[in-house]
Write a structure and sequence with these properties.
Layout: H1 8-20, H2 23-30, H3 34-48, E1 53-56, E2 59-62, H4 64-92, E3 98-102, H5 104-107, H6 111-119, E4 127-130, H7 134-142, E5 148-152, E6 162-170, E7 172-177, H8 189-192, E8 198-200, H9 208-217, E9 226-228, H10 232-241, E10 245-249, H11 250-258, E11 262-264, E12 274-281, H12 288-306
Parallel strand pairs: 3-4, 3-5, 8-9, 8-10
Antiparallel strand pairs: 1-2, 5-12, 6-12, 7-10, 7-11
Helix pairs in contact: 1-2, 1-3, 1-4, 2-3, 6-12
Length: 307
């Protein structure tokens, strides 16, 4: 039986505190006072009979009970949002909004073609595309802020409650500008990396463990000039203007390689290959427009595999 004491405001507040991992930040986003947030969480905990948050140093963290409830609360809010969207958009004549999280590896190579194909269907759906680190996008997907995430498969412990559909596999590459000295170097290329700035994925990114293992396996324990970034705009601009090395997923620089702006160092990175695909909530059925978009993404991915 559903406890009538749990209201929409309880779920909304719980989800925001879980997202922000902070009562203060949640209060600011919800435009209510911190005591009001605390009171709402306590009311919900009393109704559930368990604690959903606990102190962690100066901050808070979600409990195991809270993790379980988070999955269901997120699904409830998402279903309610979909229902509201369906009714209001039907009345206004607008299409259902679609929120997509796209990792950099698909943002330049897959998504433009997929979105172009989707727009040809004239669904009138309003599209929102969000880029960022995988951990952030998956959290937004879990909480119902995104309908779909497109990118590399996350680590198994991050995939609880999600479904993944494999589209294709790609590897990490070492990209440089077309004038880079390493393209014609005769020495040990791994030793010579220390002579140049190297752009690395951040520690929170999916491909970072692949990169770390690959470098260690090839005798590179530490890089002299290392810059961590997930910004493809910065990476592209920096490598074009400097003799730097950009370690990045192949899809991010595919267009740059095709037009000759960037070149790949002659390094065999086959062992860094990983699956790229669609991640969705396992407990929700996508709306018709989302399913149509997923199909156009599949079509765009097939064209990439055929190249």
């Amino acid at each position: 039986m559903i406890d009538s004491r749990i209201k929409f405001r309880h779920l909304q507040t719980f989800l925001e505190v879980a997202r922000q991992k902070s009562v203060m930040k949640a209060a600011a986003i919800l435009h209510i006072s911190q005591p009001a947030v605390t009171k709402t969480i306590r009311e919900m905990e009393e109704a559930l009979g368990v604690a959903v948050f606990e102190r962690d140093g100066r901050g808070i963290r979600i409990t195991r009970y809270g993790e379980v409830f988070l999955r269901h609360a997120g699904a409830a809010i998402t279903a309610l949002r979909q229902g509201i969207d369906s009714v209001t958009n039907e009345q206004s004549g607008e299409g259902i909004p679609i929120r997509i999280g796209a990792l950099p590896t698909v943002s330049t190579r897959i998504m433009p073609q997929a979105i172009g194909l989707f727009l040809e269907e004239k669904t009138q759906s309003r599209l929102k595309i969000v880029t960022g680190e995988n951990a952030v996008l998956l959290e937004q997907l879990r909480l119902g802020d995104l309908d779909l995430v497109v990118g590399r498969l996350a680590a198994p412990e991050k995939m609880t409650g999600f479904s993944f559909e494999h589209l294709y596999s790609e590897e990490v590459v070492f990209a440089v500008n077309a004038r880079h000295p390493l393209l014609t170097a005769t020495g040990d290329i791994y030793v010579l990396l220390n002579d140049y700035p190297v752009l690395m994925p951040t520690r929170a990114s999916i491909i970072r463990p692949f990169v770390d293992r690959f470098l260690i396996a090839n005798g590179v324990a530490k890089l002299a000039q290392q810059i961590e970034t997930v910004s493809d705009a910065f990476g592209r601009a920096f490598v074009r203007s400097r003799n730097a090395v950009w370690i990045i997923s192949a899809g991010v620089v595919a267009n740059d390689i095709d037009d000759g702006t960037l070149k790949l160092l002659p390094i065999d990175t086959t062992e860094t290959r990983g699956p790229v695909g669609l991640t969705t909530r396992a407990d929700l059925t996508p709306s018709l427009p989302v399913m149509m978009l997923m199909q156009t993404i599949r079509e765009a991915a097939r064209s990439v595999k055929a190249q």
